[in-house]
Amino acid sequence: MTSPHVPIHGNYRGYYTKRPSAHDPRLSLLPDGLFSGKRVLDIGCNEGWVTCEIAQLGVEQVVGVDVDDTLIRAAWRRRRTVWSRQGITEQEMAVKGRQPDLSRLTHVTGQGAPDFNYFPSAFEHMFGPLPIPPRESGTNGHFPHNVIFRTADWLKTRIVEDENGYDVVLALSITKWIHLNEGDDGILCLFRRVFSVLHPGGAFVLEPQEWETYAKAKRLDNRLKENAKQLTLRPDNFRNVLEGIGFTFIQNLGTTGKGGLVSQTSSYVSKTSAVE
């Protein structure tokens, strides 16, 4: 008999369907314009909900990476679902020589941003998702062509997009899982890897999961339980580690936990120099 899926890497299936909104409240804590025109990496993207939301905030490109290929396949489906629901943007209409896609109603909010939920979800269930249109000249920085997903253990494996570096790297809800699987050295490796791919002046958005939450997670697997006994580094010490690597301007951006969400903290740190 096949063993049930055990999310020892925090790779929960249907994680975002349990949340009360398609819009992640953690993003509201971040500085305005953080993603505009930027190259972004979302480590541990799960089923791509946050990644797709970021892709609609004017990024040049956002890459979602996760160790679980099942989640990455779901993330590609999420991209198509989001595309099927949103209205047409002014940017789409402005592309030279492009005519409106008559399979989609033309609707733009007053700010010129797309109405992300213009079509009700029932439409997709009844008629299926809309196809992703071919990439056209001038659409590289537009959703859905500005988001891609990769299956990889990013802590240990470089992906092709790493070569061009990133302006923003996100690590949301993953530090506990890296810590329990890879130990203190794994957390150090994560922070160093992020530093190595960030452009000077880039931002690292980190959600350090509280030490108290490790207790439940380590019960998922005996190996995690044994690894936990060897941990000496605590989330409260992450700031000192980040500063030692070379990050500066570390800020606590606050917490969000309304509507049944677990309280979460995001930190914003900046890289001011390249790795020596």
Automatic annotation (TrEMBL):
<protein>
    <recommendedName>
        <fullName>RNA methyltransferase</fullName>
        <ecNumber>2.1.1.-</ecNumber>
    </recommendedName>
</protein>
<dbReference type="InterPro" id="IPR013216">
    <property type="entry name" value="Methyltransf_11"/>
</dbReference>
<dbReference type="InterPro" id="IPR029063">
    <property type="entry name" value="SAM-dependent_MTases_sf"/>
</dbReference>
<keyword id="KW-0949">S-adenosyl-L-methionine</keyword>
<dbReference type="GO" id="GO:0017069">
    <property type="term" value="F:snRNA binding"/>
</dbReference>
<feature type="domain" description="Bin3-type SAM">
    <location>
        <begin position="24"/>
        <end position="275"/>
    </location>
</feature>
<dbReference type="GO" id="GO:0008173">
    <property type="term" value="F:RNA methyltransferase activity"/>
</dbReference>
<dbReference type="GO" id="GO:0040031">
    <property type="term" value="P:snRNA modification"/>
</dbReference>
<keyword id="KW-0808">Transferase</keyword>
<dbReference type="InterPro" id="IPR039772">
    <property type="entry name" value="Bin3-like"/>
</dbReference>
<dbReference type="Pfam" id="PF06859">
    <property type="entry name" value="Bin3"/>
</dbReference>
<keyword id="KW-0489">Methyltransferase</keyword>
<dbReference type="Pfam" id="PF08241">
    <property type="entry name" value="Methyltransf_11"/>
</dbReference>
<dbReference type="GO" id="GO:0008171">
    <property type="term" value="F:O-methyltransferase activity"/>
</dbReference>
<dbReference type="GO" id="GO:0032259">
    <property type="term" value="P:methylation"/>
</dbReference>
<dbReference type="InterPro" id="IPR010675">
    <property type="entry name" value="Bin3_C"/>
</dbReference>
<dbReference type="GO" id="GO:0008757">
    <property type="term" value="F:S-adenosylmethionine-dependent methyltransferase activity"/>
</dbReference>
<dbReference type="InterPro" id="IPR024160">
    <property type="entry name" value="BIN3_SAM-bd_dom"/>
</dbReference>
<comment type="similarity">
    <text>Belongs to the methyltransferase superfamily.</text>
</comment>
